[in-house]
């Protein structure tokens, strides 16, 4: 099958998770887990090998998701988790290895995300989660997801380091900011798609700031629980949430 024919494949329903309380819970957990896992890997092992290994696992998870015949809970959330890990590394590499200031990397990722959204909308005419029912739309979706993780990581680091707010204050700031799109959607009935993607970007600095606060040493404003321990606890929480969702999906299919 050629790439052109593959991108026009259609599915009976959307290939991505529905948006509800469980979705946002798993999403926030994955952002925090991605931050702590990234920190653990790059400090425990050779950074270059850690990034390469994460890139390989991310690629496998994404290909597995893209070639799935329909929405599969475990396949989808495995891809999201690996986006969390690899997206964090992409943002960190830009600053640590390439010495790009956080404000520059955040601005660059914001422009990249805008480019994804503009291209997606011009070609498909929609950015809705519920309309991701073709292979091409799913490619746009995952490009947006990966870019939001990198953008959110850079923005969270910008407030924590460049602005000097620290991890806890950054967490509180973004936790309050994420309530804005929720309010605009629920109370003001503004565009659901715009509110969703705004909240989606903000989940990243919320989760990352919390993970950093829990895992980083007290000398830099953290609780010094250790990135490895935080990553393990968050991974277990994700497994519980996703397993419950998978069981619910299986029950609904057999009714």
Describe the fold and architecture.
The protein has about 260 residues and is an all-alpha fold. It is about 75% helix and about 0% strand. It has ten helices and no strands. The protein has helices spanning about 5, 20-45, 45-65, 75-95, 100-125, 135-160, 165-175, 180-185, 190-215, 225-255. The longest helix has 28 residues, at about 135-160. It is globular, with a radius of gyration of 18 Å. It starts with a helix and ends with a helix. The mean pLDDT is about 90.
Key structural traits:
76% helix, 10 helices, mainly alpha, 255 residues
Unreliable runs = none
Task: Decide which structural class fits the backbone.
Answer: mainly alpha
Relative helix content: over 70%
Question: Gyration radius, to the nearest Å?
Answer: 18 Å
| SSE ordering | HHHHHHHHHH
Tell me the strand percentage band: under 5%
What is the rounded distance between the termini?
35 Å
What is the overall number of helices? 10
Report the mean per-residue pLDDT as an integer: 89
Specify the oligomeric state: single chain
Q: What is the tally of beta strands?
A: 0
Give the biggest beta sheet: none
**Anisotropy-based shape:** globular
Gist of the model:
The protein has 255 residues and is mainly alpha-helical. The protein has helices spanning 3-7, 21-44, 47-66, 73-96, 102-124, 135-162, 166-177, 179-186, 192-215, 227-253. The model has no long low-confidence stretch (mean pLDDT 89).
């Amino acid at each position: 099958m050629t790439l052109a024919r593959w991108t026009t494949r259609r599915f009976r329903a959307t290939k991505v998770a529905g948006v509800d309380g469980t979705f946002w819970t798993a999403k926030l957990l994955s952002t925090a887990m991605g931050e702590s896992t990234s920190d653990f890997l790059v400090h425990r092992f050779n950074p270059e090998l850690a990034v390469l290994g994460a890139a390989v696992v991310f690629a496998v998870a994404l290909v597995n998701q893209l070639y799935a015949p329909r929405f599969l809970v475990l396949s989808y959330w495995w891809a999201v988790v690996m986006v969390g890990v690899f997206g964090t590394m992409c943002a960190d590499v830009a600053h640590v290895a390439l010495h790009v200031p956080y404000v520059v990397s955040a601005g660059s990722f914001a422009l990249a995300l805008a480019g994804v959204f503009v291209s997606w909308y011009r070609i498909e005419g929609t950015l809705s989660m519920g309309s991701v029912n073709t292979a091409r739309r799913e490619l746009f979706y995952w490009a947006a997801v990966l870019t939001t993780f990198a953008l959110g990581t850079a923005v969270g680091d910008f407030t924590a380091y460049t602005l000097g707010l620290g991890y806890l204050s950054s967490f509180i700031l973004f936790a309050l900011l994420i309530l804005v799109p929720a309010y605009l959607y629920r109370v003001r009935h503004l565009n659901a798609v715009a509110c969703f993607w705004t909240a989606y970007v903000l989940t990243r600095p919320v989760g990352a700031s919390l993970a950093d606060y829990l895992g980083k040493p007290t000398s830099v404003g953290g609780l010094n629980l250790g990135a490895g321990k935080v990553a393990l606890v968050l991974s277990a929480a994700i497994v519980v949430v996703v397993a419950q969702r998978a069981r619910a999906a299986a029950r609904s299919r057999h009714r």
